[in-house]
Amino acid sequence: AVETRMRELFDAELNLTDRPMSRDDLAAALQRADVLVPTITDQLDADLIAGAGERLKMIANFGAGVNHIDVDAAVGRGIIVTNTPGVLTEDTADLAMTLILAVSRRIVEGANIVAAGEFKGWAPTWMCGRKLWGKRLGIVGMGRIGQALARRAKAFGMQVHYHNRKPVPDMIAEELGATWWDDLDQMLARMDVISLNCPATKETYHLLSAERLARLQPHVLLINTARGELIDEAALAEAVKARAVAGVGLDVFEHEPQVHPGLLGHPNVVLLPHLGSATLEARQDMGDRVIANIMTYQNGHRPPDRVIPAML
Ligand code: 8YV
């Protein structure tokens, strides 16, 4: 396992509890460590990073998203930040596709009915969901995960549309049959299913604001496996209540692990506890990637997954 390998290779202190480290513990760790390996639950803001000890050289994040780390502050102090891209792409895309299928075909609602012993017999119009074949999927953020989702959606007969700062190379667009929208609002207003697959940054904070949510087609299904901060969660709860969206599938939340109470208890809202990369294989690969980044740096080379502020 990753923990064993870390202990073999480094003088490692591991937090193997289920609880995230407190702010004080994090501050203390930043004082005594050469390398810190945070996860998404470790908020490394500018103040904490400013208090880091002289010996801290590297923050090797266990995960692809680094929105919980003030990368500017770290880089400003000469601390290298790395992440673990690539190794969780397929798993996260699988989960996004799972949520699309679960919401469109009312999987959780149906499973709950059977589990409660309430399946009383089939009827022609009972528990009908929505067909995916031929429907328009709008992907916001066409990086690795967005493209992996596009591949899956295409296999399900969906028409792939995407918004990204830049269009993907022609070869990839052709392979995916994907249409680029420069204007996010125009795309959002025309989609049947929307999936968020972009990082959380200052620019993408509340990308789906109350105003944008109000302009979606009422039959839209909204999926988020990226970061909760991309959606104004309170506004989404209102939209669900007002039936301004037909279905929602979320694996991430604005104030994780809290979930807006207005999102609970709706059969058309499927909520998962941040499972995107939760396969044994991906988590092992993420750990290996962290180790590779630390080792490369230790050996005087540029770590393969260095995060530079301009990338975000
Ligand atoms: C992890 C993730 O669960 O990689 C990411 O960005 O959100 C997930 O893979 C989490 O980040 C672990 O730190």
TrEMBL record:
Homology family: Belongs to the D-isomer specific 2-hydroxyacid dehydrogenase family.
InterPro entries (UniProt xref): D-isomer_2-hydroxyacid_DH, D-isomer_2_OHA_DH_cat_dom, D-isomer_DH_CS1, D-isomer_DH_NAD-bd, NAD(P)-bd_dom_sf
Pfam family, one: 2-Hacid_dh
Keywords: NAD, Oxidoreductase
Domain D-isomer specific 2-hydroxyacid dehydrogenase NAD-binding: 97-276
Keyword Oxidoreductase: yes
Listed GO CC annotations: cytosol
Species per Swiss-Prot/TrEMBL record: Brevundimonas naejangsanensis
Protein name: D-glycerate dehydrogenase
Keyword rRNA-binding annotated: no
Sequence ranges assigned to domain D-isomer specific 2-hydroxyacid dehydrogenase catalytic in this UniProt record: 1-307
CDD domains: GDH
Single GO molecular function: glyoxylate reductase (NADPH) activity
